[in-house]
Structures are given as C-alpha cells and as structure tokens.
C-alpha cells in the first residue's frame, strides 16, 4: 500500500503478523523494516522520517514450525535441513540454521529435535529417513 502524504495514518488490519517496510521515495531508500503483530482492527502508523512516505505491508508468511523449506509440510527434506544444522547444546547456531533452533535457545540440540519430531508426527515413525 502507498501512503502519499506525510504524518501518521491509520490502516485497518486483519489479525495476523505483518512484515512492513518504510520507503522514502525522496531518498529512494528503504528506511526501516520490521514485523508487527495485529490483533485485528485499525492501527496507526507513523513514518519514521519526514516528507513523503511509502509503507509496504505484507502478510507475514505463516510458517509451520519445522517446515524449513516452506513447501507446506514437514517431511524428509525438512529433516535433512534439521540434521545438517544439528550441532548439540554446546554449539551456537550456525548462520543459516536459525530456523532449526525451534525453541530459540541459541543451539540446535535434542530439545529442538523433540519439537521437530512433534511437527513431523507420524511420518518420522513410518518412513525410512
Ligand atoms: Ca517442508
Ligand atoms: Ca534450540
């Protein structure tokens, strides 16, 4: 969406998570990006700079925990990703493996595997990984 003026304005949002980007057309640059969570209803946005402002808002892609390749299911491909990232509780998460840290404690370890296992459900038990 485009906000051609300046100053705060209000947007009606459905409940959910959104990714936002503030773009400054005068400078031709993205000034600020981030995510917001809306409980639904109207929300006021204030441009982080003066002058014309463009606000891009996009539904945050709903991510299933454990669906690392985001194809909509948790399967062997996701397990491979997890396996490649698994390094144990004393090793910090490697770059690119952040999503494998399912409990967000800074390491990819057995606790994360428990979470992953619950995501992959019966598939893990029934297939040769
Ligand atoms: Ca997947
Ligand atoms: Ca972890």
Radius of gyration, taken over Cα atoms and rounded to an integer in Å? 20 Å
User: Count of helical segments?
Assistant: 3
> What order do the SSEs take from the amino end to the carboxyl end, as H and E?
EEEEEHHH
What oligomeric state best describes the polypeptide chains here? single chain
Largest sheet: 3 strands, antiparallel
The low-pLDDT segments are none
Descriptive tags:
single chain, 129 residues, alpha+beta, 2 domains, 20% helix
Give a written overview of the molecule.
- The structure is a single chain.
- By secondary structure, the chain is an alpha+beta fold.
- Helices cover 20% and strands 27% of the residues.
- The chain has 2 domains: 9-59, no CATH class; 76-124, no CATH class.
- The protein has helices spanning 76-85, 110-120, 122-126, and strands at 9-13, 16-24, 29-38, 41-45, 54-59.
- It has a 3-stranded antiparallel β-sheet, with no helix packed on it.
- A hairpin with a 4-residue loop joins strand 2 (16-24) and strand 3 (29-38).
- The termini are far apart.
- The mean pLDDT is 83.
- One calcium ion is lined by residues 101, 103, 105, 107-109, 111-112.
Show the helix and strand layout.
Blueprint: E1 9-13, E2 16-24, E3 29-38, E4 41-45, E5 54-59, H1 76-85, H2 110-120, H3 122-126
Antiparallel strand pairs: 1-4, 2-3, 2-5
Bound molecules: calcium ion (2 copies).
One calcium ion binds next to helix 2.
């Amino acid at each position: 969406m485009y906000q051609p003026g300046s100053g705060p304005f209000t947007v009606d949002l459905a409940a959910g998570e959104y990714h936002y980007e503030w773009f400054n057309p005068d400078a031709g640059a993205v000034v600020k990006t981030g995510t917001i969570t809306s409980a639904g209803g109207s929300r006021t946005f204030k441009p982080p700079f003066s002058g014309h402002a463009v606000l891009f808002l996009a539904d945050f892609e709903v991510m299933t925990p454990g669906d690392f390749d985001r194809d909509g299911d948790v399967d062997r491909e996701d397990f491979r990703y997890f396996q490649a990232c698994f390094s144990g509780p004393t090793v910090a998460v490697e770059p690119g493996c952040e999503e494998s840290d399912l409990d967000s404690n800074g390491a990819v370890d057995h606790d994360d595997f428990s979470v992953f296992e619950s995501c992959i459900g019966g598939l893990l038990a029934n297939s040769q990984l």
